[in-house]
Write a structure and sequence with these properties.
Elements lengths: L1 H4 L5 E2 L2 H10 L2 H7 L4 E4 H7 L2 E5 L7 E4 L3 H5 L4 E3 L4 H13 L1
Parallel strand pairs: 1-2, 2-5
Antiparallel strand pairs: 3-4
């Protein structure tokens, strides 16, 4: 069944997914329920997914919380990956430009 839901060898999350999962307060249990490796790019880890807004309700942007992904990386629920070389980076750019 997991091959039907997750046909690829891994699940790649973008910054928006990471921010929303973290803000849910249930990121660990959600990651544990995914039967494939879950990965994010080093760029998302280092440059994009940094904080969430925490309230109060009348001014949700007043307070923030830092996103700490290290516990998920340490427990191998989340893998941080980067492009290996220039050729791989060019291939990714070509792929996204053609879609």
């Amino acid at each position: 069944m997991s091959d039907n839901l997750f046909p690829r060898s891994s699940v790649i999350l973008d910054a928006c997914c990471i921010i929303n999962l973290y803000a849910s307060g249930h990121m660990q249990s959600i990651l544990e329920s995914i039967p494939k490796p879950v990965v994010i790019s080093a760029y998302v880890h280092d440059m994009e997914a940094h904080r969430i807004y925490t309230g109060p309700d009348e001014d949700v942007m007043r307070e923030t919380e830092l996103i700490n992904l290290q516990p998920f990386v340490d427990s191998k629920l989340l893998q941080v990956v980067s492009l290996d070389d220039g050729l791989e980076a060019n291939t990714v750019v070509s792929f996204f430009c053609c879609c």
